[in-house]
Amino acid sequence: MANPPTTAEELIEHLRRRATSDERVLDAIASTPREAFVAAHLRPYAYEDTALPTEAGQTISQPTIVAIMTAALGLQGHERVLDVGTGSGYQAAILAHLCAEVVTVEVVDSLRRQAEERLQTLGIDNVEVLPAGDALGAPDRGPYDAILVAAAAPRIPPSLVAQLEPGGRLVVPVGTREAQELVRLTLRADGTTEEKYLGSCRFVPLLGPEGFPSEVSET
């Protein structure tokens, strides 16, 4: 068995074997310093293939999951992409390398501000970081060619499907609070949809009208 990755170069080779052969996605991950999105004491672990804790009880996703979700969007470079759940800003930074414009929304204001600062520090200027509003996503900025959701929903949110352009793709974890399946939904030109299941995963829950009810124990 190969040793687990501990450097950026080793992680990219690991992802090439385990997650995707899309070289544009791998190049975007290689160009995004994961250590810039985690706390100082976690930087020695930044290139391990594991989720890491961040502020406000959130996580920065496992690189394999990031690679799979990003590749599933099938980005070519011209698209407008919605990123639901900014978190640390890591996923938005990777998307920024692959499309024309990213709109990302975050419900926790401290996370949103920190993510915006990180992106600015890295010179990433095609990402708009917005506070999450009453409506899921950012419908007033849509429609979008692709939407990625970094929080688990009990079902595919209809309001996000409504924010897709014809031919657009939505990738979202769907299931219970404890376990989910990654789903890619494609909106066909005739308004019908096609779903593909991409494997099991575990994300923090999406809270709100199309997510899970808030619990006192959750931050």
Q: Would you write up a description of this structure?
A:
The chain is of the alpha/beta class and about 220 residues long. The protein has a single domain, classed as Rossmann fold, CATH 3.40.50.150. It is built from six helices and nine strands; from the N terminus they run H-H-E-E-H-E-H-E-H-E-E-H-E-E-E. It has helices at about 10-20, 25-30, 65-70, 90-95, 110-120, 160; strands at about 50-55, 60, 80-85, 100-105, 125-130, 145-150, 165-175, 180-185, 195-200. The strands form two sheets. A seven-stranded mixed sheet has the order 5-4-3-6-7-8-9, with helices on one face. Strands 1-2 form a two-stranded antiparallel sheet. Helix 1 (about 10-20) packs antiparallel against helix 2 (about 25-30). The longest helix is centred in the middle third of the chain and has 13 residues, at about 110-120. It is globular, with a radius of gyration of 16 Å. The chain starts with 7 loop residues before the first helix and ends in an 18-residue tail after the last strand.
Q: What is the chain-wise order of helices and strands?
A: HHEEHEHEHEEHEEE
Beta strands, count: 9
pLDDT averaged over residues: 93
CATH fold descriptor: Rossmann fold
CATH architecture: 3-Layer(aba) Sandwich
Q: Helical percent range? A: 10-25%
Q: Which CATH first-tier class would you pick? A: Alpha Beta
Strand content: 25-35%
Number of helices: 6
The CATH superfamily is identified as Vaccinia Virus protein VP39
Terminus-to-terminus distance: 38 Å
Structural class: alpha/beta
How do the strands line up in the largest sheet?
Answer: 5-4-3-6-7-8-9
Give the CA-based shape: globular
